[in-house]
Specification:
With 510 residues, the chain is α/β, with parallel strands linked by helices. The protein folds into 2 domains: 3-58 and 431-508, no CATH class; 63-419, Glycosidases (TIM Barrel, Alpha-Beta Barrel). It is built from 11 helices and 25 strands. It has helices at residues 11-14, 41-45, 104-113, 166-181, 245-262, 281-295, 319-323, 355-358, 365-372, 395-398, 406-419; strands at 63-64, 72-73, 79-80, 84-86, 93-95, 118-121, 128-130, 133-140, 146-151, 157-159, 185-192, 268-274, 304-307, 329-331, 350-354, 377-381, 428-429, 439-442, 446-451, 457-460, 467-473, 480-482, 486-487, 491-494, 502-508. An 8-stranded parallel β-sheet has the order 4-16-15-14-13-12-11-6. Strands 17, 18, 19, 21, 22, 23 and 25 form a 7-stranded antiparallel β-sheet that branches. The protein has a 3-stranded antiparallel β-sheet with strand order 1-2-3, with no helix packed on it. Helix 6 (281-295) links the parallel strand 12 and strand 13 (304-307). Helix 9 (365-372) runs parallel beside helix 11. The longest helix has 18 residues, at 245-262.
Length: 510
């Protein structure tokens, strides 16, 4: 028996079916493991509320995998491939005053339905307003109590920055722990680049919804004498720099409080900030180092991430700043081809490739598989039940927030199931081995190739002796089929049985 074929954590899937391949003398377990020629319930119900898979509680804390640093590892050394949907209200309510509360339990069930094991838990620093509408959008709860004296710009009591609101941290802990109990890892966001500055995009009115006016560090919003807007441009970009020691001291105390709240949990990753501006680099490095140093005094240490720095003109961040950071994982922008032709991950950092920084809301099934076969961990900025889908927003924008994203959500779950049925620790990107250039391989044993279209693919098996089993998977329908056995020793051409793209898995026969 081929030892490499039984290293999967998910042995239940491996043993779920034994199928005879035409011409085989022995039964061979299907490596895709969860479907067979379209007959399974999964293929039929993957978009229709299929019952969630059962997973054990998340095991951790995660560390960068020693053998294959493109991925994380659990304490037993197993690769943990991360993929899933994340959305804006998973921790702090972001809603219109008359809008519904976020149903966190339903959100976790949604992730389970699609077999996702990761999401970013969004933090919002400001209490009111957003860049995209002149409506009053409120954010609640917050780390700091609103005790006054006096009223903030949103009409509610001012913040007391000298102490914490324990209800916020109780909520944070409960939500992270509940996800971990379901086998879901959480990147806990600490700061928010869209809570400062008047970040503008195409068609955004510069006089609409300035989030800085709702920020606790605005001089009119706190009773602690803190003024985060040193240059008085009504943007507050300085609070994501080290320019104001009083602000930095408060931020450091908050970071330590989050660590104290979550340190004993296994499913935690940290993210410094979502899309802070390009001048935030030194401040983000400082916070990464703070987490690493402070957790050295604690029982557990968790991975820390730095994500794309969004800004206008010279304030736009660079990939260089991310790769050179002390972070354990990073998320990049569309620059460098991460949208159309994701570069092969080289192992310098774990790359959690996030459509949030590449499209905003965007992506497709092909992007998920391209990203996966280039050694990255794809995640989706999901418009899941967002308030911008309400009728009070522009009708031409609402189509972006509908339920038409199920194929992409399903594709991420498909890659996860496959990742748990191959020896991903040994598989690295080998674009040179397949004519489509999308190939994860453990040369001589395993080849996973993505075909974006219906054209045939050539796989280089020149240096390989042995016979390979072929399996095909349709990433659009969820159907898999067995192919013919193939001998190594030359370049081999394979024709997909599916018209709109396919995944080919070749693995050495027993």
């Amino acid at each position: 028996m081929n030892i490499r074929r039984i290293r999967s954590k998910n042995t239940m899937l491996m043993a779920a079916a034994v199928l005879l391949i035409a011409g085989d003398a022995m039964p061979v377990p299907p490596r895709f493991g969860f479907i067979n020629d379209g007959s399974s319930a999964f293929a039929q119900d993957r978009f229709q509320g299929a019952p969630p898979a059962i997973h054990e509680a998340a095991s951790g804390p995660l560390t960068v995998h020693r053998q294959n640093p493109r991925y994380f590892a659990d304490p037993q050394g197993n690769v943990v491939y991360l993929t899933g949907s994340h959305t804006w209200a998973s921790l702090i309510e972001r809603r219109l005053p008359d809008g519904p509360l976020f149903n966190y339990a339903a959100y976790l069930q949604f992730l389970e339905r699609f077999d996702h094991n990761f999401f970013r838990m969004w933090a919002w620093e400001h209490a009111a307003w957003m860049q995209f509408t002149d409506l009053m959008v409120i954010y609640h709860p917050h780390p700091y109590p609103r005790t006054g004296p006096g009223r903030a710009l949103d009409g509610r009591p001012r913040f007391d920055l000298s102490r914490f609101d324990e209800r916020y941290f109780e909520r944070l802990r409960d939500r992270v722990k509940t996800a971990g109990d379901r086998g879901i890892y959480v990147a806990v966001m600490l700061f928010q680049g869209f809570s400062i500055e008047q970040k503008l995009g195409e068609g955004v009115d510069p006089f609409v919804g300035n989030p800085w006016e709702g920020h606790p560090f605005h001089r009119k919003n706190n009773a602690s004498g803190i003024d985060g807007d040193l240059n008085r441009n009504d943007e507050g970009e300085e609070v994501h720099t080290l320019a104001n020691p009083s602000v930095t001291k408060i931020q450091e105390a908050y970071v330590r409080k989050v660590i104290d709240t979550l340190n004993d949990l296994d499913n935690v990753l940290f993210e410094i900030s979502n899309e802070s501006h390009g001048q935030s680099t030194e401040w983000q490095y400082h916070m990464i180092n703070l987490i690493h140093e402070y957790e050295k005094t604690k029982p557990k240490q968790h991975p820390v991430g730095m994500t794309f720095q969004f800004g206008q003109g010279k304030s736009r961040g660079t990939s260089k700043a991310l790769f050179e950071s002390p972070a354990d994982w990073i998320s990049l922008s569309a620059d460098g081809g991460y949208r159309e032709d994701p570069p092969a991950a080289d192992g310098r950092k774990v790359i959690i490739s996030d459509t949030d920084h590449i499209w905003g809301i965007g992506g497709n099934v092909e992007w998920v598989w391209k990203t996966f076969t280039r050694g990255q961990n794809p995640v989706f900025m999901d418009p899941y039940r967002d308030l911008r889908g309400r009728k009070s927003f522009a009708p031409e924008d609402r189509h972006r927030y509908d339920e038409g994203w199920d194929p992409m959500r399903a594709a991420m779950g498909d890659t996860r199931r496959l990742a748990e049925n191959i020896d991903l620790a040994r598989m690295i990107p080998h674009p040179e081995l397949a004519s489509t250039k999308y190939c994860l391989a453990d040369p001589g044993y395993d080849y996973l190739v993505f075909l974006p279209g219906g054209d045939p693919v050539t796989v280089d098996l020149t240096e390989v002796n042995g016979t390979f089993v072929a399996e095909w998977f349709d990433p659009h329908s969820g159907v898999s089929k067995h192919g013919d056995r193939t001998d190594g020793g030359s370049q081999r051409e394979f024709q997909s049985p599916f018209p709109q793209g396919a995944v080919l898995h070749l693995y050495i026969a027993n």
